[in-house]
Amino acid sequence: MLKTYKYRLYPTKKQKEKLDWTLNTCRILYNSCLVDRNRHYEETGKGLSRMTQQKILVGDKKNIEYLTNIHSQVLQDVLMRVEKTYKAFFRRVKAKKGKAGYPRFKNYGRYDSITYTQSGFGIDDTGKLSLSKIGHIKLKLHRNISGIIKTCAIKKEIDKWYVCFSVEYKPIARPIPDKKIGIDMGIKSFASLSGGKVIDNTQSPDVKAKYYISDDIQLSLFDLLETPQPIHKSEIKKVHKVYFSTENRVKSGSFQLQNRRFLGNKYKLLGFIEDIVNEKCNGFGVFCDIFAGTGVVSERFNEKNIKVIANDFLVSNFLPLRAFLGTSEIDFKETEKKIDILNNIEERNDNYFSEHFGNTFFTLENARKIGAIREKINDVAKTDNEKAVLITSLIYAVDKVANTVGHYDAFRKKLDTVQPLLLLVPYFKPKNNSNNEVHREDANQLIRRIKCDVLYIDPPYNSRQYSDAYHLLENLASWEKPLVYGKAKKMNRSHIKSYYCLQSASKAFADLISNSSCGHILVSYNNTGESKDGRSNARIGDEQIIDILKTRGKVDIFERDYKAFTTGKSYTDGHTERVFYCKVTK
Description:
Strand content: 15-25%
Distance between the termini: 55 Å
Shape: globular
């Protein structure tokens, strides 16, 4: 038989850092193994075995030096955990009882233990725990170990560390006594034993204060203790958990949806948002991201059994959303060929794009090529989805060579971003997109026509219009070649201004909430701290958000500190990201 002995560890500061690094590296390896298995199945239609992944790991250790700093048994245990996860998934699928739960990536903090399965550990002569590649750690051995130690697991629980030994032992058969004993717990006496002995009640009968019923009147515990009953109020739940983005192994020449700089991008907050959704909204089937932006939140919940509704009013956001979330059928090999054609374009003549944005936002060579590629896309794209994919590839490539600080409100004076333009192939899973909807509409109009289980709302926070910051990409995506003016060569943007950036923002928000048809509402709203520039301060106050949401149900607030990507000259203090959750009951 097996039993577990658990002891407290007291690592030094350096040992804690080494243990944390080991946990995070194993987490990354776990996530990478999931990616490898998924990709192998998509490409071959067959699964990837643990033995095959172990052979890959051996090769990785030769090329990735830091993997050699972790004991081989610990790394192999990661592969065993991946295999167990998939076996459990297929077992649930076969049982056909409820949601099977496809294996998911581990966020930072979700991978909290490592295991030495056969060797690499022991207790030294000084009573310390010896761990290969880590060192000798102080151990509180409060009881002796009886049996043969089989495995050693190191676990982190919040900020404390523990070791768990799995021990094989032979149970000792205890003799069964012939005599029986009975105990009658009474009111007058404390107990009456079967042998006839009576144990008196030790409590004095004169002490009335210890009874809940006093002077023939039944009182509450709060009354008897003369303690006021607590008044329950909504509290802000401050979250201090640290999240790191999931590391995926992506094919060379590919890019992912999150590989784009964008104001208000929630990529680093995905774990925070997902935890709230998992806690409050279990079992949902339709997720609506009505101010989707780059779509990172939509993609987080994009699975085969979940329908995603994504919406954004800007064409430069709508087309990537359509590519990553709305394309269910695509020939990636054909797409790769067309992107090769676009990359091989050599343009030496000026065009609309180079005349307005060359030698400012881009080198003249890149600007000429961007304009030529945008024209060529209209010729080579056979379908609207294929056109969206190619334009998305161009938008992401443009972002990499732009002479800006991440947005297009202005360009940098010194033109030193000179690397050549290179389009890549977007990496996504078309099978997950078959039920999705992607819209380019006014959110307050769309909300009147859709129904969902979870409504996620991430509107603009302040008076800075996204159409100003991304006018260039909007011009490139729509390709209507409008007149431009000013130093930044901005087009007329009056038709794509958001009223959530105006003084009427609270009215627009109230209208959106009142017309929503959903079960759960999550509002992500940044307090934007206290900015020196009034334009950066939030348009809707916390009290307004709470009051509006309370018209639909009870409100909970989740908050965590967050350093946001800004427009370059905004300095803020007390910058927090808040998620207001409302369970819709009205």
